[in-house]
Amino acid sequence: LFNINSDDTLPPVKDLINQKNKTRTKLSDEVSTENFEKETKELTQKVETYMATEEPFLNASLSLHELSKQMKIPSRELSILINHHLNKHFFDFVNEYRIEKAMHILKNPEKNELTILEILYDVGFNSKSSFNTAFKKHTGYTPTEYRKMNSLSAA
Question: Per residue in 78-94, pLDDT tens?
């Protein structure tokens, strides 16, 4: 059913981290940590910029593997970045961009004719319940409440 094209022979991430920690020397520790943090920050910026400008999240079937192919970043590296450095699951990471886009549309008085259903499909969601759940988790409001709140403040 799922074709992830992963290499099952790769060790778990925690083993790689432990192995790396054991092989470090005191002298190289500071330099390695500094380089690692710099590379991580640059890669994080690259991913966030790509998500904001190219909007791959609008594709409802976006997967980690697909995003990694688009960005030419190994999927394992992208997964580690999102999970361990951004402290998010892949779908929460993607859904945040979708919700931000939906919030922008819901605030726009020129888009009042769009239904919530049209908006959720436009921003990459497949179901109303997952959209409503993610929206409320991110904003504290349902999409309808959010739209009403913003149309009242604009009037």
Answer: 999 999 999 999 999 99
